[in-house]
TrEMBL record:
CDD domains: crotonase-like. Gene3D superfamilies: 2-enoyl-CoA Hydratase, Chain A, domain 1 (3.90.226.10), Lyase 2-enoyl-coa Hydratase, Chain A, domain 2 (1.10.12.10). This is Enoyl-CoA hydratase/isomerase family protein. InterPro entries: ClpP/crotonase-like_dom_sf, Enoyl-CoA_hyd/isom_CS, Enoyl-CoA_hydra/iso, Enoyl-CoA_hydra_C.
Length: 273
């Protein structure tokens, strides 16, 4: 890789960038001490990097994975607490949440996720929106929005029903129960599940094959298939807007407090809608 290629990603200080094979870029969520939780700066960088990858003439495939024992634990509590009740911050986060999903969908390069351990929240967006998603057997995928006290926004409504069907999507999204790597493969939530010690090797083999394939054919196939996701845009926009509305309410405060205190939340039983 030339010097300019490296400089292209110099601003992405919260993400580890390397090149494990020719024309393959690897992004590693790199806060292992917090199970790769996502703070505000990381969320912005995760959103923006796909545009640079799209324009990068030296890259043909992308791998996304996590450092240490987790893929990504999702948004950290400092980010969530800063958003709660903060109209200005919620507008910014809503735009970023939409841009993250659409930037991954619109990125012309095929994306392979290597999901090692827990994957939630913003990290899970990239994990299951990836064109080829590979889970290790120790992977644990969970969309915990309602457990936090907000609607399942982010990537849930745009792709879960398409991948695993409405019945499974509703079950896991309403109950916030985790999905193991093997179960995720069984229900179609991920492309495949492999032994943990084969995860990175498998992702690199697939990325290398794609990097050496017919690029116009691969990129146009991705573009065409992702029209299934683009046509679900209004569904996605609604879910993410309602998630943001939830951050103006009481339940999210109890959701965060109960997470911090490691207890079951005590949400109010009545609701006007």
């Amino acid at each position: 890789m030339g010097g300019n290629a490296g400089d292209r990603y110099a601003a992405y200080t919260k993400l580890k960038i390397d090149y494990p094979a020719e024309r393959v870029l690897r992004i590693t969520f790199n806060r292992p001490e917090t199970y790769n939780s996502v703070d505000a700066e990381t969320h912005t960088q995760m959103t923006d990097i796909w545009r640079d990858i799209d324009r990068d003439p030296d890259i043909n495939a992308v791998i996304v994975t996590g450092a240490g024992k987790a893929f990504s634990a999702g948004g950290d509590f400092s980010l969530i607490e800063h958003m709660t009740g903060n109209h200005e911050e919620l507008m910014k986060t809503w735009k970023e949440a939409k841009d993250l999903v659409y930037n991954v969908i619109n990125c012309n390069k095929p994306i392979i996720s290597a999901i090692n351990g827990p994957a939630a929240g913003a990290g899970l967006v990239v994990g299951i929106l990836a064109d080829i998603s590979i889970a290790g057997k120790s992977a644990k995928l969970v969309d915990g929005h309602p457990r936090l006290g907000v609607a399942a926004g982010d990537v849930a409504a745009i792709i879960w029903p398409l991948l695993c069907g409405m019945a499974k999507a509703k079950y896991y999204l309403l109950t916030c129960k985790p999905v193991s790597g093997e179960e995720a493969e069984r229900i179609g939530l991920v492309s495949m599940c492999v032994e943990d010690d084969k995860l990175q090797e498998t992702a690199l083999d697939i990325a290398t094959d794609l990097a050496n394939g017919a690029q116009s054919a691969i990129r146009w196939t991705k573009y065409s298939l992702n029209n299934w996701l683009r046509q679900a845009g209004p569904i996605f926009d609604t879910s993410t807007a309602l998630e943001m509305l939830g951050f103006m309410g009481e339940d999210v405060r109890e959701g965060v407090k109960s997470h911090r205190e490691k207890r079951k939340p005590q949400f109010r039983k009545d609701c006007p809608i």
